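so the lab meeting is tmrw and i was supposed to have these ready like two days ago... anyway. pasting both below. for each one the top line is the aa sequence and the line under it is the structure tokens. i havent really looked at them closely yet so no promises
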Amino acid sequence: QARMTWAASIERRFSLLLLASFGLGLLVPGLDAFPTVLVPILLGCVLFLACAKIRPDDLASLAPGRVALFFGLRFLAVPALLVGLALAVRPELALPALVFGLLPAGVTTTAITSILGGNPALSLGVTALSTCLAPLLIPLAVSLLGVQASVDPVSMGQSLVLLLLFPTAAWFLV
């Protein structure tokens, strides 16, 4: 009962906190000197608070067919479309377009989905799956294009796990 009251309190004030943070970032000079080590911690806090609307049952009830369709479009159709457009307009941007198309969903998408009245459980599931796939798909796509680029999947995976796994697990364990 106390957890639901706390979660409801966070949910009611989350939009205001998000808007205040955005305004602070626009209005306060010198925030570019903000210690970069704190950015992942703050993103983790955003994801932790965004989990307020999600129950374990919500994650268990995700339809695998809908998630698979989403990922088919997300990791095949969107990158192919972006690369096709880049090749037609500026071929030298094909690799950045491909990498951009394969980037995982951001940790803030769950918070934004919740604020906009969407399905935060689906957003969290999509974020988790795309985060797990990104360290594999991005280096694979880069190598398939035959481009020499330095991509460290282990380091990328570690960063993504720290940003996603820890805050989500912390919420469900609290």
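ok protien two:
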Amino acid sequence: IALIGSFEHSFEKDTLWWSDEVYNILGFDLSNTPPKYEVFIKGFSGKDAEQLNTLISRAEKYGENYSINYSYKLPNSGIVKHVYLNAEVIFDENNSPVGLKGIVQDVTKQKEVQMKIQITDQRLKISTGAAAMGIWDWDIVNDQLIWDDYVYTLFGVEKGASIGGLHYWLDAVH
């Protein structure tokens, strides 16, 4: 349901373990061992692959945990998924980094919803701008008005100025 898998990576042995869900998220066959790093990294865009290589290197060298959001192209289908990865460094008894453990989460649906919201927001701004309309809201709990840029213009108020609560709007209208 949550589309979250876990992994472990040993720096010393150069071994990798994936939960079944990581295989599913990244589109690899469960009957195989995790792919070699060179095969796995091919699913990343150039920039994302470079960033992940840097993060892993810093984890091994300096013991730094990391998290990254990236796009991953599935090896067999070419479908692109949006994935969140969070890794924590494993230390030995001498406090030296020896590996990583972490989670991989498929956030494709969340990313798609986020992109739809951004598109809708852009369309709304274009529509209200073309219609010379402003949009406002009232935060009842805190008695605060929330105005878009055009409402500031309509009322002749400097954009971003503190406008107070509903009483300001009522006084201006009546």
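from a quick look at the 2nd one: The first strand starts at residue 4 and ends at 10. The two ends are 53 Å apart (CA to CA). will dig more after coffe
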